[in-house]
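SDR family oxidoreductase
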Amino acid sequence: MSEEKMLQGKVVVVTGAGRGIGRGIAIMAAEHGAKVVVNDLGGTEQGDGADQIPAMEVVKTIADAGGEAIANFGNVANADDAGQMIEDARSNFGSIDCIVNNAGILRDVIFHKMSEAEFDAVIAVHLKGSFNVSRAAAPYFREQQSGSFVHMTSTSGLIGNFGQANYAAAKLGIAGLSRSIALDMSRFGVRSNCISPFAWSRLIGTIPQGTDAERERVAKIQQMTPEKIAPLAVYLLANAAADITGQIFVVRNNEICLMSQPRPIRNLQASEGWTPETVASRFGPAVKSSLVPLERSGDVFCWDPV
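Tokens:
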């Protein structure tokens, strides 16, 4: 008797699954027994346009390998479209068990030149989109007392990067959203975790390559294929990860990191209370050596992944 596959019988919605990381997760989920809703609007990396071909090609790839999948072309930024993704899963496959919030766009601009439209568009797809799809699935997860969310965050938000205030705000917001979902829904047996992926994709493809150092960094990232993210995502969706929730992981090629989350690192108490002057004379000097430096993602993840 063959061993049961890790996602056998699970129904999974993967957003932004027509290309890149989402495509890799959708295909691997199907390989491990899941029935997959392949969602992709099919727009550009800036979120413009629509194209049904990428999602349909992923569905065909899954079907040709003996798996089950359907395509959905909805926009995660639209709550009605998000609800339809869940209904498509239930009407075609009978249930909904897992969500992978992967859809995203980029509108990179240095902060003082960023328009409200450029900010809003990225927040709408990444953060609001993750809320919309998760919220649509939540009542069914609560009713069946099970379910798993995997959301895509980024070290651009967790650590920082140039020219990505909109993207960083959305991605750090997703980490908070995931944590809150984990807390609110743990009583129903529902889990929520984040992955921060390092992988070459259309979005990462917008990284500047004007200097030798930038070109060298991009060459290293190009070795990190989107498919490298899928094993952790499949594991986090599966019952094998039943005791893991509210966490943030980083995947870099063959390396997986568990990330820290904000906690107090230094404190001072003044029994008489504080004035601006005593804050300046006592607190400031005391915490100076513990302040978090102004670093970018590449400064922190400065070693070559295996």
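Strands lie at 11-14, 35-39, 68-72, 98-101, 147-152, 190-198, 248-252, 255-258.
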